[in-house]
Design brief:
By secondary structure, the protein is α+β, with helices and mostly antiparallel strands. It contains four helices and seven strands. The chain has a single domain, classed as Gcn5-related N-acetyltransferase (GNAT) (Aminopeptidase, 3-Layer(aba) Sandwich). The chain has a seven-stranded mixed β-sheet, sandwiched between helices.
Amino acid sequence: MRIEEIKIRTAAPSDAAALLSIYAPYVTKTAITFEYVVPSIDEFRGRITHTLRKYPYLVAEAKDEILGYAYAGSFVDRAAYDWSAEATIYIRQDLHRLGLGRLLYDALEAVLRKMNILNVYACIAYPDPEDEFLTKNSVQFHAHLGYSLLGRFHQCGCKFGRWYDMVWMGKRIGEHPENPEPIRSFPDI
């Protein structure tokens, strides 16, 4: 597979089974997500639908096969935070380090800019030390894309009988004027 063959498109609720097949191993075999139980397809379909009401939910696919996905959501549910969003990304585990993550995040950030979002944040599980369930790869990936470490919460999540830290990373993707343009919802851009 070549990066030129990959298409980025908006996810649809009908993609739930394919997206869940990417997400499920992260739940069952890693501490990348602090979720313990793999959601049902109906639950996952509902998550996609909920996100798409206001924010982008993108998939990377080649030859009609979904390879990964990224989406954004509300950072904090208060009006003053409207210009900030939280980003999430999952790539099929056998396809890491091929450029899919950058491709998805570049597309996600482009859409967020059109929405007048100015800041993007990522909440990332962080090991101290690394183990078979969690490495520092996600932090390194975000740093490579220009995200900065903003804060660290020590031993705030327990999974597989081990305590993990959580870090926040962030990136400014727009200028911060005194009177920013109103936020536009994803379906409206």
